[in-house]
Amino acid sequence: MNSTEESAVRKTGVQLILKDYQLVLALAFAIEQINKNPSLLHNLTLGFDIYDVQFRGWPLFLNPFIWLFGKYESPNYSCMRDRRSIAVLTGPSAIISDQIGTLLGIYRYPQLHPLLKSIQFQNPSGDQVIFDEKKKLESEYDIMNIWNFPEGLELAVKVGMFSPYAPHVNQPSLSENMVEWAIESTEIPHSVCSESCDPGIRKSPQEGMAACCFDCTPCPENEIANGTIKEYCVRCEDHQYANTQRNQCLLRVASFLAFGDPLGIALACIALCFSMLTVAVFGMFLKHQDTAIFKANTWALSYNLLISLIFCFLCSLLFLGGPNTVTCILQQITFGVVFTVAVSTVLTKTVTVVLSFKATSPGRRMSWLLASGAPNFIIPICTLIQATLCGLWLGTSPPFVDTDVHSEHGQVIILCNKGSLTAFYCVLGYLGFLALTSFTVAFLARNLPDTFNEAKFLTFSMLVFCSVWLTFLPFYHSAKGKVMVAEEVFSILASGAGLLGCIFAPKCDIILVMPNKNSLHGFRDEKH
């Protein structure tokens, strides 16, 4: 402090407090540094005015008036045109700050209190004041209940309060027994528009009603609504399914037409029984190959038909058990080729029967065809055509392993997908064409004087074969899952059994039951 400042102090008679003077210097230094840094306040310059505050009546407001208007003699009119203050740092005590704040509030000037440097303090009235992290005041308020009974009373009663300083579990604090409801009682009324929905049922809002009003709608199949989600249903994944209550997704169990299933056991036993029966017939023909009935029925074709029937019955086993890529391909290829051999053999036998009787008529052409063995080319040609169709099938869209999650509840069925239904129906249609051709030729030759009625048996066998597969088609389209596989296996076994029974059962009957007919002498007796 220099001599000039000391003389000024003596003239005014005011004692200068050194600590306050240091604070003024610190303020001046801070503002000077802010103004020197252009990155802090763009196009703005801070300044400050310092006024002495007296601790007695009228002089208390002298300096604030000068600060507000430039002169204390002319209130409500500002003489300061070139500068304007934006805030006030008030006096050293709460009393002075409160008195000056009353004046500043009239002209809406903010007052920065020194206590605001802390986020927690007590105001002059003794109330605890706490600011949050963003320097915002956390309010404390009372909860009032308007008592209007009797009508018109309109008495405001404090029934609780909210305090940011109370523990979180106690916010707000409410005296429920002090609350008077519209039913003229302090007992809490039970107000529910709609009862809560059970698990597995979703809430459907009622149009035009409050949010608490809703309908309970059951979830669709394979969708759930649990305790956490009730506004809408959630679909289970493909490898999962909804339980009966439709509140939980469960894992599906892998399923296929296995050998251990009752249906699988039954089909496998039938296939093996027919295979062994065919082998027995084959053995019987070998044993009686020198008899008349055997010689009259082109033994080479009979052997070929029996062997193909054995493979027809055994190929049905490929449809049982866990599917894989190899078995899926072998199922259809083996079925198509082996049955083509069997049906084309029947066609060859039928043509042979017709040519045998036509050759007895005048003319050499029929005799030459029969002697040259031309009918025997039917089998390889027909089989080659079927093999070509199967090759095109494998080259364009081969069968593959697929899953079915819709046919059986709670299970994922593993099965073979045909790949191309068009190719499958082409293979099946070609078989049907061969069978229909054989049936037509055999039907036309049914009245020929055949020794052992071979043409009639061939007609019945093709009739059974065509009936089985014509019945198979509509059922195959309507069935799903394991039932569809079982129907295909059953059709294979039934059509094979039809060929075996209609063609070879009468011959076995003659060999075993009526051996007297299985000789040239018996044939002559029957003829005469």
From TrEMBL:
Signal peptide: none annotated. GO terms for cellular component: plasma membrane. It is a multi-pass membrane protein. SUPFAM superfamilies: Periplasmic binding protein-like I. Gene3D superfamilies: 3.40.50.2300, GPCR, family 3, nine cysteines domain. Pfam families: 7tm_3, NCD3G. Residues 263-527 form the G-protein coupled receptors family 3 profile domain. It comes from the Eukaryota. It is found in: Cell membrane. Keywords: Cell membrane, G-protein coupled receptor, Glycoprotein, Membrane, Receptor, Signal, Transducer, Transmembrane, Transmembrane helix. The chain crosses the membrane at residues 263-286, 298-321, 333-357, 369-394, 422-445, 457-477, 489-514. GO terms for molecular function: G protein-coupled receptor activity. Belongs to the G-protein coupled receptor 3 family. PANTHER family: CALCIUM-SENSING RECEPTOR-RELATED, VOMERONASAL 2, RECEPTOR 118-RELATED. This is Vomeronasal type-2 receptor 116-like. The lineage of its organism: Eukaryota, Metazoa, Chordata, Craniata, Vertebrata.
